[in-house]
Design goal:
The complex is a heterodimer of chains A (about 220) and B (about 300). Chain A is an alpha/beta fold. Chain A has helices at about 10-20, 185-195; strands at about 1-5, 30-35, 50-55, 70-75, 90, 105-110, 125-130, 145-150, 165, 180, 210. Chain B has a 7-stranded antiparallel sheet with strand order 7-2-8-1-14-13-15, with helices on one face. A 5-stranded antiparallel sheet of chain B has the order 9-10-11-12-16. Chain B has a 4-stranded antiparallel sheet with strand order 4-5-3-6, with helices on one face. Classes of the chains: A alpha/beta (about 220), B alpha+beta (about 300).
Chain lengths: ~220, ~300
């Protein structure tokens, strides 16, 4: 295990040490302390590392992640796991806005709540939020799955493409072209699998499913000015 | 960009330490705003009927003594003052309007930064660390304080364009974001008799709240109206004689973090600015919801 104290090292130094592992894997267990809410911690990882971050982090933590398993023992600022390609990012506290923005793959788990625009433009990742999500979550989301065990804010799934959204609690309002859809055994099984991966014991039958009505896919002359 | 920070003490015993608690918060936001910085501190209150003015002159050798003598003779009321770098705080045994008008007329070379019973606004162009040290922020005492580090987008990098903005007694505002309807609002406020001194959008927001409160709104009501009438992106921290409030626009693009313990409430654009506070590990930390008013008010000083 390698321990890095960010009171003694810069984030740039830390990230370089982590990036060096992508060429020759010497150490796969990392612990980072004294984070003090700094930005860009553990970004651009490209190796099967286990990174434990003790403390709150700022913006874009674990952004562009590939293969690594990053755990934040605290809260995360804007854009945690943005553009993640694979691996796992687990935030034990709350996350700010744009959690998992544009993420292509991997699993993002938030134990607490997220701010606005969770999963905005996500492109294939899985996101499980054990608390609530803020407004405009999954805005223009293209693929992947968002699971919300709490409530969702206004305009959920606005201009949605093919991302599937499961919500257990209340949805304040649905965005344009986002509709509730029927849930079959196939969906329950899919959701159960994802909840298990996220370490959640929620009952999948308590969730509703939302998706795109696909009415914005094609140009409609009636909508022209 | 821009960084905003605020600290409101629930535990009166900490009032002697507010400056030393707040200085690292302001300085931590340098990355968000290296152009200019400023803060508004509430404390060292003058009695009702008296007024405290913060006046600014760019020349460090300005003769404040002579000004105080002149003012005392002409206003025929007791005046005390103390200097603080480029600024001076005058305590005048008369109402705010009389005091402000006197200095604006007889000392037009000065810039009036604040007027009230409790507020002192100190601000300058430069790095937050330099400004904090020039005004001896860490040695200051008070009940609540809000601050701003500026990265200018809307108007020039000048003292006049730096925050906090005050347009009413003991009222001030710091802002991260930009207003899109400030020109129309400026015209409307002028129609109601409120004339802004700068081209800055934030001053208009401060003027708007002053107007609403003059109309009888409480701080909370004025902010409810602001949510209807102010268009743009904003996180605001507002200081009043007894209170402190935080509000974000309905889209909530601009960041904000709140932290509360038994001793204080703190807000900042980023969590980084809160890490130096005592017992922050035990604080309740959360992101303020969009279009929601968070306010704390003291019963008395």
């Amino acid at each position: 295990m390698q321990s890095i104290n960010l009171a003694e090292h810069t984030v740039r130094e830390l990230n370089q040490l982590l990036h060096d592992q992508s060429k020759d894997l010497v150490e796969d267990q990392w612990e980072i302390s004294e984070t003090s809410g700094q930005h860009n911690i553990a970004c651009g990882l490209n190796q099967k590392l286990n990174v434990g971050i003790k403390g709150h982090v700022g913006y874009f933590c674990a952004g562009m992640n590939q293969h690594a398993h990053v755990t934040v023992h605290g809260n995360a600022g804007q854009g945690v796991a943005e553009n993640m390609m694979s691996g796992t990012v687990h935030v034990k506290g709350d996350a700010s806005s744009a959690a998992g923005a544009t993420s292509h793959g991997g699993l993002l788990v938030i134990d607490g709540n997220t701010g606005a625009r969770c999963g905005i433009s996500m492109k294939g990742s899985d996101i499980v939020v054990k608390g609530n999500v803020g407004h405009m979550s999954c805005f223009m989301a293209q693929a992947g799955t968002l699971v919300v065990c709490g409530d969702a804010g206004e305009a959920l799934g606005d201009s949605l493409y093919e991302t599937v959204i499961f919500v257990k609690g209340k949805v304040q309002s649905l965005g344009a072209d986002c509709v509730e859809k029927s849930v079959t055994d196939k969906h329950f099984k899919q959701l159960k699998k994802l909840l298990d991966r996220a370490g959640s014991e929620e009952d999948p039958t308590h969730f509703k499913r939302y998706g795109s009505a696909r009415q914005l896919y094609n140009f409609k002359v009636d909508n022209a000015y | 960009m821009c960084g905003i920070v605020g600290l409101y003490l629930k535990n009166h015993a900490l009032e002697n330490q507010i400056g030393s608690m707040f200085a690292p918060m302001l300085e931590a936001m340098t990355g968000r705003g290296p152009d200019s910085a400023g803060f508004a501190i509430y404390g060292d209150e003058v009695p009702k009927g008296s007024t405290k003015l913060t006046l600014y002159h760019q020349d460090l050798t300005y003769d404040w003594d002579a000004l105080a003598h002149r003012a005392q003779a002409q206003l025929a009321v007791p005046i005390e003052f103390f200097r603080n770098h480029h600024a001076a705080v005058f305590k005048i045994a008369t109402d705010a309007q009389t005091a402000s008008e006197y200095f604006l007329t007889h000392a037009p070379e000065l810039i009036l930064l604040s007027a009230g019973q409790s507020i002192e606004i100190l601000k300058a162009v430069g790095l937050p660390t330099e400004i904090s040290s020039e005004f001896n922020l860490s040695g200051m005492k008070g009940s609540h304080i809000i601050g701003h580090t500026r990265m200018a987008t809307e108007s020039a990098v000048t003292l006049e364009g730096s925050h906090p903005f005050s347009t009413g007694q003991d009222l001030c505002l710091v802002h991260n974001g930009s207003f899109s309807n400030h020109n129309r609002l400026r015209t409307e406020l002028a129609y109601h008799g409120y004339h802004m001194k700068t081209e800055n959008d934030t001053e208009v927001a401060a003027g708007y709240l002053t107007w609403r409160m003059d109309q009888g709104d409480t701080l909370k009501q004025s902010l409810e109206h602001a949510l209807q009438d102010l268009d743009g992106f904003y996180t605001l921290a507002i200081g009043t004689h007894d209170g402190f409030a935080v509000i974000r626009d309905p889209i909530a693009c601009k960041p904000a973090v709140l932290a509360e313990t038994d001793d204080y409430v703190a807000m900042a654009s980023e969590y980084q600015a809160l890490t130096s506070l005592p017992n922050i590990d035990q604080a309740r930390i959360w992101e303020p919801e969009p279009a929601t008013i968070y306010s704390w008010q003291r019963d008395s000083h």
